[in-house]
């Protein structure tokens, strides 16, 4: 993968401009606070980059809500903090208008739609759980089990502090495979809200079968969804339209999120 390090860095450095605005009904000051603008990494999670957002707005809500957990919303849809930011954007924003307009709340936390996230430790636990799940698919969990605690911390701190080299010094171990066989299975989630009521689809797909490299098109065919029924579509990850003939092994090595999963969104041109 050394020759493709530039691709990994390009993906890592992907950013989205976001405009955060406090919900009008929660403003308790005579003058509404100004919006707060941030350039956020696509690969990270909102709780890791919104400390400044909280400090900016919390002074403008009633004191009894100062300790409430902050949550975010886009067009009346609560944003799942355990989804990477880039996935949320690719999944929910259909007009690609920037900056992304997000509403901030300190009241009426939607427990029925969002997991609680009282601290960054919860995000770390979520990341480690996802990495172990991905490694179980790729290597029967052998790599994560053999890694030392400091390697796990490298992964977490690299993501937390947006340090590419720190993260990849450990993550490269999770991308190791035999040249002939690739990974056991490809860790992925396919998001198709137009076609299924499930939050995402996940099933076992090998990158190589009978000495043939499987492609993104092969993965989609096994979803048993009539994808073309809604018209022409794209498969998007990191805001990129991935050609269907791209080999799965290559996509998994180069375009996985830090949790080592491919988060693939079906987008229709009519959207």
TrEMBL record:
From the UniProt record, which GO molecular function terms apply? Atg8-family ligase activity
Family matches, as PANTHER family: AUTOPHAGY PROTEIN 5
Q: Where in the cell is it found?
A: Cytoplasm; Preautophagosomal structure membrane
Say which domain of life the source belongs to. Eukaryota
- Would I find Metal-binding among this entry's keywords? no
Protein name, entry field? Autophagy protein 5
Swiss-Prot/TrEMBL keywords: Acetylation, Apoptosis, Autophagy, Cytoplasm, Immunity, Isopeptide bond, Membrane, Ubl conjugation
Q: Which membrane topology term applies here? A: Peripheral membrane protein
Domain Autophagy protein ATG5 UblA residue range list: 11-106
Q: What does this protein do?
A: Involved in autophagic vesicle formation. May play an important role in the apoptotic process, possibly within the modified cytoskeleton. Its expression is a relatively late event in the apoptotic process, occurring downstream of caspase activity. Plays a crucial role in IFN-gamma-induced autophagic cell death by interacting with FADD.
Similarity section: Belongs to the ATG5 family.
What quaternary arrangement does the UniProt entry report?
Forms a conjugate with ATG12. Part of the minor complex composed of 4 sets of ATG12-ATG5 and ATG16L1 (400 kDa); this complex interacts with ATG3 leading to disruption of ATG7 interaction and promotion of ATG8-like proteins lipidation. Forms an 800-kDa complex composed of ATG12-ATG5 and ATG16L2. The ATG12-ATG5 conjugate interacts with RAB33A; this interaction is bridged by ATG16L1 and promotes ATG12-ATG5-ATG16L1 complex recruitment to phagophores. Interacts with TECPR1; the interaction is direct and does not take place when ATG16L1 is associated with the ATG5-ATG12 conjugate.
List residues of the Autophagy protein ATG5 UblB domain: 185-266
Question: InterPro entries, from UniProt?
Answer: Atg5 (IPR007239), ATG5_HBR (IPR048940), Atg5_HR (IPR042526), ATG5_UblA (IPR048939), Atg5_UblA_dom_sf (IPR042527), ATG5_UblB (IPR048318)
Q: What sequence ranges are listed for the domain Autophagy protein ATG5 alpha-helical bundle region?
A: 121-176
Q: Which GO terms describe its biological process?
A: apoptotic process; autophagosome assembly; autophagy of mitochondrion; cellular response to nitrogen starvation; immune system process; negative regulation of programmed cell death; piecemeal microautophagy of the nucleus
One cellular component term from this protein's GO annotations in UniProt: mitochondria-associated endoplasmic reticulum membrane contact site
